[in-house]
Write a structure and sequence with these properties.
The chain has helices spanning about 15-25, 40-45, 55-60, 75-80, 100-105, 140-150, 165-175, 175-190, 195-215, 225-230, 235-245, 250-265, and strands spanning about 5-10, 30-35, 50-55, 65-70, 90-95, 115-120, 130-135, 155-160. It is an alpha/beta fold and about 270 residues long. The longest helix is centred in the last third of the chain and has 21 residues, at about 195-215. Bound molecules: nicotinamide-adenine-dinucleotide. Nicotinamide-adenine-dinucleotide binds near residues 11, 12, 13, 118 and 173.
Length: about 270
């Protein structure tokens, strides 16, 4: 990966995941600056050898890449003083949910190179999934840089149209919570069957991990085939799956994901 001077505006959970991921890959700490008004957050980063600052404008002056990692609600207030800086030779990467590249361009008028990213929380354990969208004028080398940056904490995919960010939100941004809900319900059912909570959790987490690993290790096999391979006719798995079918689980999942997309569209 190419090395550039990066300033993170906002040093919260997501910024931490990305910075720690970069450092783990050997990215030079002195080329990273994290700006956050919270002293405790700054201490966390400076302990890793990065530069820190509580002055956003000063911290971005020399940066080649600015990564906006503040909450969407305060993005306009945070960008107002930054707009005095010339962004024409800088790459701006925003991970803020629901802030379009058009909105970012309005907030930072001199910015030409803008990449919008929808990450997800498994980035915190280096197993993230991020959707990336670049405006037309962003050169390939800068797109590659953004790709390498996000690859430090997981997998990435490029989107051709910005509107697909809504589907990415439904498919990966919000989806860890769907799996948590599924696992939570399974753990609860097992506890009601008299297993202790730790054993119940172990059964659920290891099965989820194992199922995901089988999907990853068998890229040519359809997901339906993986399911059918473990479902003997008249057996225990078939009995469980028949209940899901009766309750129209597939339709419920579809409706939940459509609701996610709708909410994402309303927020933009
Ligand atoms: P967070 O609350 O952990 O971090 C935000 C940080 O911004 C805080 O440390 C805060 O002190 C700092 N901050 C506040 N005002 C500031 C200012 N004026 N200048 C600089 N820093 C300031 O939030 P997070 O979970 O890391 O989310 C950051 C962004 O990532 C959000 O825009 C969110 O939409 C996006 N995102 C998060 C997730 C997720 O799962 N956490 C998923 C997708 C996208």
């Amino acid at each position: 990966m190419q090395h550039k001077l990066i300033s993170f505006i906002g040093g919260g959970n997501m910024a931490q995941a990305i910075v720690f991921g970069l450092l783990k890959q050997g990215y030079p700490a002195e080329l990273i600056c994290v700006c956050d008004p919270n002293q405790h957050r700054r201490d966390l980063f400076s302990a890793q050898g990065t530069q820190v600052s509580d002055d956003n404008v000063k911290a971005i002056q020399d940066a080649e890449v600015i990564l906006l990692a503040v909450k969407p609600q305060i993005m306009a207030d945070v960008c107002a003083p930054l707009s005095a800086v010339d962004f024409s030779n800088k790459l701006v990467i925003s991970i803020a949910a629901g802030i379009s590249t058009a909105r970012l361009t309005a907030l930072l008028p001199s910015a030409k190179n803008i990449i919008r990213v929808m990450p997800n929380t498994p980035a915190l354990v280096s197993q993230g999934m991020a959707g990336l969208f670049a405006t037309e004028q962003v050169p390939t080398a800068l797109k590659q840089f953004a790709q390498d940056l996000l690859s430090a904490v997981g997998k990435i995919c490029w989107l051709e149209q910005e509107q697909d960010m809504h589907s990415v939100t439904a498919g990966s941004g919000s989806s860890p919570a769907y799996f948590f809900l599924f696992m939570e319900a399974m753990q609860q059912a097992l506890v009601e069957m008299d297993l202790d909570p730790q054993t119940a959790r172990l059964l659920v987490q290891q099965s989820a991990l194992g199922a995901a690993q089988m999907v990853i290790d068998n890229p040519q096999t359809a997901l339906s085939a993986l399911r059918e391979n473990v479902t003997s006719k008249g057996g225990t798995t078939a009995a469980a799956l028949a209940v899901f079918e009766q309750k129209n689980m597939t339709q419920t999942i579809k409706q939940a994901m459509q609701a996610c997309v709708q909410r994402s569209q309303e927020m933009e």
